[in-house]
Amino acid sequence: MSLSINSLSTSYANLQVLWDVSLHVDKGEVVSLIGANGAGKSTLLKSIMAIIRYRNGSIVFEGQSLKGLYPHQVVARGIAYVPEGRRLFPSMSVEENLRMGAPRKCEDLDSRLDSVFSLFPAVNARKKQSASTLSGGEQQMVAIGRALMTKPRMLLLDELSFGLSPKVFERVLDAIEETNHLGVSILLAEQNSERALEVSKRAYIMENGRISSEGKSQELINDSRVREAYLGIVD
Amino acid sequence: MDTSLVNFAQAIISGILLGGFFALASVGLSLIFGVQRILNVAHGAFIVLAAFVTIQFSLVATPSLHLNPLASLGLDFMLIGGLGVCVYFLLIRRIENSGFEAPLLATFGLSVFLEYIIQSGLGPIPSIDPSHGQGAQAEHQIYSSTSLIVGPLFVQEPELISFLIAIIIIPILHLFLSRTYYGKAIRATAQDWLAAEFSGIDIRKTRLLSFALGSALAGVAGGMFAFTNSVTPLLGDTYLLPIILVVIILGGVGSMIGTLIGGFVVGLLLSFSELFDSSYLFRFGFQPDVGYLITFLVFLIVLMVRPNGLFGKGVVK
Amino acid sequence: MTEDNKQNHSTYLKQFSKFGLLSTNHAISPTIVLIGLLLTGLYPLVSHANPTSLLEYTPYFMWIILAESWNLSGGYASLLNLGLVGFFVLGAFVTGFEMSMGFTLFPALIFAGVVGAILGFTLIPTLRLRSDYFAIGTLVVPFMLKPVVEVVFPRSTFSTPPSEILNPVQLYYLGLTLATISIFGIYLMMQSRIGIALRAIGDQELASSSLGINTMLYKTIALALSGFLAAVAGGYFIQSISINSTYFENLQYSLFPIFMVIIGGIGTFEGPIAGAVLFSVISYALNNSFPGTSYDILLFSIVIMFVAVVLPKGIVPSIIKGFRKIGG
Fold first, then answer.
1. Which of B94, B130, B290 is opposite residue C147, by nearest beta carbon?
2. What CA–CA distances, in Å, run from B199 to B40, C75, C217, C306?
3. Residue A103, domain member (yes or no)
4. Which residue, B89, B208, C120, C326, could crosslink C227 as a Cys pair with Cβ 3.0–4.6 Å?
5. Which fold has domain B9-124+141-276+287-305?
6. Residue B195: its chain A contacts at CB < 8 A?
7. A83 to chain B: which residues are within 8 Å by CB?
8. Does a structural domain hold residue C300?
């Protein structure tokens, strides 16, 4: 098992947002996390990244607890994170943004850059440009590229489809599947996305800070209640 | 040459040289404020502290060890940089994410603390009630008499040195931030510290580095300050801090080259305003600082029209 | 309504009800403060103290007014004004000048307050700025006022004319009256529409502007009233001391009130009062522990740093929070 979360509870000040969340991602697996805005998906990912400190429960990655680490130490353990809204460094070039993902002393910097560029040829063409001049899709690619520059064994993706046209989202998902074939486990948080369910093997559904159901993605797609509530499809 | 032309040329020279010093004094705070959003109101006190280190050095080490007083600049850099490290760990680290007010108060307490240390190291301790004025202050200045004379124009040697240091250090700092890994990591932290963290950057390290570097640069500026000015313990608050804030905002927070130009703008404004005949104001018994009025007015206008300054984007870019 | 708006709206309503008139502990603090002020008023009558010793209280009343003034803009309206000293010293100069021109105390004080309010109005353009730039802009204002005042009031020091000097008892009661007016004036104002709008702005600026509150108008009102009070505090201060234009450069008059408001609880009714009292107690205790030396300043600077680092949310709020925890 790659990542396992056991009965996690998280609060912002006095407001509890995660209740007893348990979840696991096996090595090499793609798992999606489905739920409405405010269901707690982002909070869960931020808890894994140690951006939010949690009260109870445990987060274990490759057999080691992540408790008490700083975010950059979680990154060093092999987990990378693509946040909602991308959060690139706006006054830096594309290449500099990617460079920031790699550690200071990085012998294989060029090969890391090359693998990002071969995944996203569109980014290669714009590597000298300032990140703020890119289109939404290109920014998303740079954000994923920056995360891949850390050479992760697990990738957390928050709301990849945000602001993207279905065509561009499709291209980004292809890249994610390609990354997964290279052995990177993936946890994909999305609201209302049938596509996310289709690329993943298993899925969890979150509701009001709790995991309300879990199962094989295919079974969830066929579940009429899930179809109606989360995929917006009325049979 | 015509006197008014000479005065004009002299004003340009003095303004540029003075501006170099202002830029040097401001660049450290611009870095710190740009990276951490911390308004270190003790920055002026850092500079004055370094000035007193240099004065002590010239009184003690220069006669006995035959060292040039300029050698104390290295000492200032190390000492105030070290002070910055201590201040970061003791004060800033715990509260850097808790808004604007707490770090402001902490550094305000620090400036009162440092001013006390400077004053008590220098003879009579002034009145203790903050609501009353400050008492007797020691005045020191070193090295100021040497000047280079070129035709009708003159240049004070220490002012020239501080100008040269500014135009060397600031471009180097700019290159450090734009070319090296740590420099880029500092810029990344300034632009989005959370994104920097999950890119794998240890932001505690980059913030410590920028705070220490910013403080150390205040140390160098303080050393030069001792060569060009009569230094009194409270000058940090009453003279340096407002000018520094004006320079930083004019140049654009976090832009090192912008800070250099902001320094020149303020230096020129101050030196040119001395050209105006304000002698009619002497009938009141003293001369108000018209230069400061003009400078601060220009500052407020720029702040309204271009809040991010003439060159800045609000963070270390 | 989008999801985000809904969330903002509900937090706004929550904040609203927290400050609402029906809140349970609403009347307790004002009652305690009123009793405290009455006792303060009785003190000179029952203590048989040497009247001259009453002079020691002048700064404390001044600090309360300044803290109230800063809490109005910095606490309720979230305008981080770092230039309070500008309003304060300007008020002192105007009062001194008016009184030397033959005005009596109260018209001079009101005139000074109006000048302070006008200075607040001139800062309207800065209200558009991001909060930290606003702070820097206001920090520079007193340094700009200094040369202006030197031209407009061409003399080196200011004081009240000898014939108008108040005796210590009068000075004590003047301070008490002004402090009471500012405390309860602001209290009553905060119950009005203006106050409710200000609280809404301080809590959720975006939400309140989307709910149709004219944020600029209310921020301007807060800044002008805060300027009025700070100037009156200056007018009171100059009754006891003569001052010169270098007072504009004294950051402490801007930052001590902020310290008081923060330790007492920013944006609350009791915050500035509790903070000013706490500040006065600390400085009095330090002052008397080291008579004849100035170690108190050193220790006081350490107290400021300690509070900022260990209790950045303030002393009084931390105590209240502690009690609530114990009480369950």
1. B290
2. 28, 36, 43, 33
3. no
4. C120
5. ABC transporter involved in vitamin B12 uptake, BtuC (1.10.3470)
6. 83, 87-89
7. 194-195, 198
8. yes
